[in-house]
Structures are given as structure tokens and as C-alpha cells.
Design a protein that fits this description.
The complex is a heterodimer of chains A (403) and B (126).
Chain A (H helix, E strand, L loop, with lengths): L1 H4 L2 H88 L5 H25 L11 E2 H9 L8 E3 L5 E3 L1 H20 L7 E8 L2 E7 L7 H11 L17 H12 L2 E7 L5 E8 L3 E3 L2 H4 L17 H5 L39 H4 L3 H4 L6 H28 L5
Parallel strand pairs in A: 2-4
Antiparallel strand pairs in A: 1-3, 3-8, 4-5, 5-7, 6-7
Helix pairs in contact in A: 2-3, 3-7, 4-5, 5-7
Chain B lengths: L18 H4 L16 E4 L11 H10 L4 E2 H8 L3 H14 L2 E4 L10 H15 L1
Antiparallel strand pairs in B: 1-2, 1-3
Helix pairs in contact in B: 3-4
The chains are: A alpha+beta (403), B mainly alpha (126).
Amino acid sequence: MTQYFQDPALWGLIAGTPVAATAIIRGRKKIKELGREKVELKQHYANLEDHYAEAVEEAKDRAEESTKNTLKAAMRTLQGLASEQQLAISKLQETYGEQKILQDLLDIDHMNSQFARRAQSIAVLCDGWLGRRRNDASLYDVVRSAKGRIRHFTRVEIRSQSNFAIVNRAVEPVALVLAELLDNATSYSAPETIIEINIRPVPKGVCIIVDDAGVGMNEEEKARAGQLLSGGNSASVSSLGNPPQFGFTVIGVLAARYGFTVSVDSTSPYGGVRAVVLLPDELLTSLHESEEGPAVAASTPLPPENPPGPQAAAAPGPRHRAPGPPDFGGPEAGPPAVPETTAGGLPKRRRRGAISIVPTENESTPTPARDSARTASAMGAFQRGTQSGRRSTNASSEGHEVQ
Amino acid sequence: MTIDDEPELVHEAAELVRPYVITNGRDLVDDSRFSLLTLVTVAQEPPRTQPLDPEKQRVLELCAGGFLSIAEIAGHTGLPVGVVRILVSDLTEEGHLYARAPIPSAQLVDRQILEEVLNGLQARFG
């Protein structure tokens, strides 16, 4: 064993062991440190990556926002111009109504309406406004207005009229939504086929049903359409594609904003798409005669040759809209006549004429014995005269809206 | 974003239903059939049809009181004359309206005849 003591290798080993141990321990420490650093770096990297995604998202949002604002402002100008032009065309149509040029004016009017619709749709995508109408409009007129905003409008047939009217703020949105639906329907069906519109009252409001005879949509398209129509994801201008397909997106935005629903997930009886717009009661109203204006609401054919007497007083005349004095016409005076309705259930409009403004002779014939009755009757006639006069001045300002 | 801050239309809005929709894109009617002065009135026995468009209904109501000219109907309805012609033409064909041609203005008599008469009278009494 002693020979080993003289071996320098042993001493070398003895001296080397702690050195090696220290080196190993140091190495381990180093590895640990490096490991920690690595974790930190990883975290840092992850952080950076997150922030990057956020930053990109933010930049995208900001770009989208400014695009929308710019487009919105531009569209507002276009919308204004289109409606100004529409007014000008209206005046021209009236001026040159009896000449051949009217045909061209009608065509230009049609093009202008389509142009206005495009501008409106883009405005909606950019969170812009459509402009609120001053008056409520009958549902039938709104549907016809929508029909006029697409290219092949003669293929659209409106099968039913209704008594319902749409409140003024919803007139343009509903018309635009219907126009986009009709545009889709005409684009995805053969040119000789008809698009049918039916109006059906339901417990929750009114349904406008648009049936086309096109090829329909597959499940995937239906799902995508349903998602767009729900208006859930906000409209983005950059994701519309080229050529842009924004019909369903526009509809979704408007439906969400005004609180009605649109669905396209059923099949029409003709094999194409059936689109259903459900308008809730909040957006509906009924057309009152007074709103229609006296120009169209004067009288049923008057009985001018009625024998004087109680029958005349009870006959439905123009005065049922002007509450006369209670003693007018004597005790036989019947209750105010209920506005008649046509076979289709529409309120019957009445003709205005000189006869309805000036009460007929027998109406104002007093009972000879009663002076007070004569006075009252004269007063009544005077009141009716001024009222119908006032109504006819309103008519000139409102008359256009009801046509 | 509430609905109530929706601005009103800046410009006075034109009619909601455009005339080309009322005529359903049809061509204008030749004005030789219905001149401005053609008189129409409601037929004695109107046919039973589906509910008419509001504009056609309006024309019928206007004519209910007696004969009315095309020009007057256009004035009352505010529609272009050409559009009224189409409506009236439709209504006449469907049997709702009865049209009467305007009374022709007096024909000018041949100048030669007048001269001959004058000469004859002068020869006789002059």
C-alpha cells in the first residue's frame, strides 16, 4: 500500500477530487441559472407575442374605424345627392308628363333609386344612417318602394295588400332590407321566373314573405347567412370580398338596430329560398283616415238627391268626420258612419269635391219651429266648412305621401 | 347608438312609391287613345276583381262623381300624365272605367265652298 503513497498520481487524485467537485457544483449551478433564464426568456417572448397580436388587432380596428368614418361621410354626400336628384326627377316627370320624354325620365328615376340603395347599404355597413321619413307609410307602399330599388323589379309580384302601416323611423330600413332580399332573389333565380311577395299578419306582428324560384341554398350557405342575419358579429368593410357581397350583412345590421328579424332558412314552394321578415308590433301602426289626408278621404258617393228629412241626416255624409253640434239634424241624427271598407278590407277612401265642402241643402234644413236649432245648424255648417277647408290645405302637403 | 338620434332626411323626400313602380315598368300608352281631354267615368257595372292598387282606386274614386278628363285626374293625383294614361287605359280595359273621346272641335269648312256661297248670294241679292 505504501508504494501507493509514493505515487504522485494518488496525490494528484486526492488534490483533484475537491476541484472536480467544485467544478461540478459550479456547473450545476450554471445550468440551473441558465434554465431560469430560459424560462424568463420564454415568458418574455410569449409576452411579446401577445402584445404583438394585440397591437395588430388594435391597428386593424383603428384602420377599420377610420375606413368606416371616411366611407360614411362620403356616402352621406352621395345619399344626399341621390335624394336631391330624385326630387328633381319628380319635378321633371310632372312637367313633361305628357311627352315621350317621360319614358326616359322614368328609366332615369329607376336607375337613381338603385344608385341610392347602394349608397344606403354602404352607409349602413359604416354605421351610418338612412334618414328618417316624416310620415308613416302603408306596408304595401313600403314593399312597392323596395321593389322599385332593384334592377329587375318587374319580376316582383306583390300578392296581397294589408291594412298595416310602418312607423316613420322604420320605413327606410324595412324598405332597404326588402330591397336587398329582392336583389338576392332576382340574382339567384332564372330571369323569367317571378318573385312573389305575400304579407301575412301573425300574432307577433306582420310577416313579409319573399319566395323565389331559384336554386336555393345549401346547408353551409344557410348557416353562414343565418350568422350574418343575426347581426351578431359587427360588420366589417374589409371582409366583404370582391365583388362585395353585403346584402345579408346589411340586413343583419339593420334588423339588429331596429329590432325585427329576418330569416332565410326555409325553402319556397317553388324550390328556391323563402325569406321571411317579421316586423314586431312596435314598428307597426295602422293607417288612419285622418293621416291619409282629406284629399282622398272625403265621402262615399254622396246622395245629393236624398229627400230632405231624417234619412238625409242619417246618411253617411262627409260630416261624420266633423263632429257637428249635438242637436244638429234633430234627434234622428244617426251615429257617425263607420268608414267603409273595400272587398279587400282596405279602408275605403272618399272623394273630395265641392259637394263635400258645402253641406247639402237638406242637411242644414232646420226644423222650422226651432230657432235655436237653426242657429246651431248654421254654426255647424260653418264649422264643417272651416274644418274641411283646413283639411284641404293639409292635403296639399300630405297628399303625396299616401299615393 | 340609439335609434332616436336618427336624423330626419335632410332634403324634402320625394314620394316613397316611384311612378315607374306604379306602372310596373310598362311602356307609355299612345296618346292618340287617351288625349288630355279624353273624359272617363266609372262603369255602370264594375267587374269584381282583386283589390286594386291604391292609385287605381284613387282614380276610380275621383271619377265616381261624373266625367273627368285625363288632365284633371293627373292634376288631382299629382301623377305624371303619361302614368295616368297607363292607369286609365288599364282600368278601361278591365271594365272599371268608361272612356269617351273628347268632343271634336268644329271642322273648318272648305274655303272654296264659302266663296261660292258668298258669290251666289252676291249674284242673287247684291
